Amino acid sequence: MPDLFIFAVAIHRASISDLAAQLNLxxxxxxxxxxxxxxxxxxxxxxxxxLARQLHYQPNHLAAALRKGRSNTLGLVIPxxxxxxxxxxxxxIETVANQAGFNIMICQSNEKVAxxxxxxxxxxxxxxxxxxxxxxxxxxxxxxxxxxxxxxxxLVFFDRIMESAQVSAVVLDDYQGGYDAVSxxxxxxxxxxxxxxxxxxxxxxxxxxxxYTDALQSYNCPIDPALIHFSDLSMQDGRDGMGILLxxxxxxDGVFACNDLALVGAMQMVKQQGxxxxxxxxxxxxxxxxxxxxxxxxxxxxxxxxxxxxQTAVQMLLDMIAAGDQTxxxxxxxxxxxxxxxxxxxxxPFA
Amino acid sequence: MPDLFIFAVAIHRASISDLAAQLNLxxxxxxxxxxxxxxxxxxxxxxxxxLARQLHYQPNHLAAALRKGRSNTLGLVIPxxxxxxxxxxxxxIETVANQAGFNIMICQSNEKVAxxxxxxxxxxxxxxxxxxxxxxxxxxxxxxxxxxxxxxxxLVFFDRIMESAQVSAVVLDDYQGGYDAVSxxxxxxxxxxxxxxxxxxxxxxxxxxxxYTDALQSYNCPIDPALIHFSDLSMQDGRDGMGILLxxxxxxDGVFACNDLALVGAMQMVKQQGxxxxxxxxxxxxxxxxxxxxxxxxxxxxxxxxxxxxQTAVQMLLDMIAAGDQTxxxxxxxxxxxxxxxxxxxxxPFA
DNA sequence: ATGAAAGCGCTAACAG
DNA sequence: CTGTTAGCGCTTTCAT
Lengths: 351, 351
Known about the structure:
Two copies of one chain form a homodimer.
Chain A: H1 2-11, H2 16-23, H3 27-34, H4 42-54, H5 61-68, E1 73-78, H6 84-99, E2 103-108, H7 113-125, E3 130-133, H8 143-150, E4 155-158, E5 168-172, H9 174-187, E6 193-197, H10 203-218, E7 228-230, H11 235-248, E8 254-257, H12 260-272, E9 282-286, E10 300-303, H13 306-323, E11 332-335, E12 338-340
Parallel strand pairs in A: 1-2, 1-3, 3-4, 4-5, 5-11, 6-7, 6-8, 8-9, 9-10
Antiparallel strand pairs in A: 10-12
Helix pairs in contact in A: 2-3, 6-13, 9-10, 11-12
The first copy, chain A, binds a DNA duplex through helix 3 and helix 5.
Organism (chains A, B): Hymenobacter fastidiosus
Keywords (chains A, B): DNA-binding, Transcription, Transcription regulation
Pfam families (chains A, B): LacI, Peripla_BP_3
């Protein structure tokens, strides 16, 4: 039954031992030839490569992974993938990782610790060689992350980090970003600058807030609790928060928001109240989202060097993996932000 | 040297045979107990589970995958992850896949066939159990995808598909979406509706365009080449295209764009020319991007049921995987779009 | 320069 | 209900 035979041949996935059999070589020789081992004769290598090509040989990664105890896969846990920031970070990560021959497994926590825990478990289960994490809004305890380290799996945080000095991380200088944004507002003549802040257990929100207060202080501006409102920073939160702030402090003339989603909500509320931007209220945010240039007025925002952050973080992780057991001392990389001034805060075009 | 011993114990990853040894059972019994096999006594199961817990036993997925010839991982290839559409599709896919115990490996082609080919190769290499693909803009030939099917790996397309009837796919009814959008513009009194179209080898662009022409015809409107402009649909393309259209046909009074990025570019150009939206030119697009509600005016757009598309696509893939060899006839699912009317096209608020 | 053999950790016949 | 055995496909000593 020749038809069936052909079918069988077509469907069969060639393995190293198949090659070995057909070439009258041992599996070890073929294996070495395929990995271009130095002590295999060029002649043999050619024969092996040729047949491998002919048979469409594809290495079984799973088997190699099992044998070597390495999957060549990295895990990535992010709060969510929509929005410019994480999308770009992911791009940076993928680029570097793929170049190094690693695949990426991406998980979204949707800002929930519970989901984050499941994500971590799934990644450990999938035997990833290392994990990159940006924490969810609701992550207060870190047992699931300690577990990762307990197992000796290299771990790198980025952006939203666990602040113990014990882990490697790459972050933006959020403090500086906040400081720059608020200084800029002050330079534009703002006297009563409000802040739409995020959860203060998150390093990024805490530091941006500190940048805000410090900038005010260095300009000898008082810090007024009536000008400060904390929330989870959704667009709706921004709108509501702005409403509250305007009621508490009708004389406010500037807003620094911890992210652009909240800022755009605030913008809507400001416009709804019939106030002019930036003349009556100047606006600055954080993240440089795509929509910042699409609103009217266009929104001033702090750029976060997303792709660079991703690239730096994987590189760190790859270094840790390469270093193996010898636990390197945790490194922290801090990237410098850039303030992008747009219409929402530019009072004097010639300033 | 007790210290060293303790260290060794702490670091060792317990395996099934470790459990077996400590319990005086065979590996197979332990294996069966762990997977809650029906023919293992409850007493034994309890003993096994208890010890597994104590030793923090974690199954080695890689080994199981090798043995079973299944990695429980799915591959996903998308053009890019920024923007609302793919982000939401990914969310839908992850939800369903995780529930079914599958992990996802996400790759971005960045709209380049070359990268898409690499992505596919990487996924095959990683031994995924099935692949989901949305084609890149520049994909004209499909060898890399044929290769997937040649290897018997289940394959499902979504949104941007290969139009041979031989593959399973889930798409939006783009034709209907285009038809609805243009009908709506006509209902608003537009007589000279322009189209910013995308590459016509892509099913989505072709079908949206066809929706445009058919809607015009059914309203007895002539189809004027001067009102039609094709590009790759970036924001800049939209702006430029709009400039050209306005020069070719100064009397145009409506625009249907194949995506919202191009539409927002067009909007900027229209405003720059001092024309009013929607009174002079009414605008409608496709994708329901986040920024549609942030522009002024807010943009009318066709919603694509992103999450549903993702969920449907994985479900299909999981079915194919479950079905095994017996190649099911390829299925096509077509989701119905919804037109979201906003300010950019609403001429009479009471209409 | 090549081969033999062991084994990564797990599952699944095939016995009892 | 439990045990024995045989691999999945690959890498890697240790020989020669």
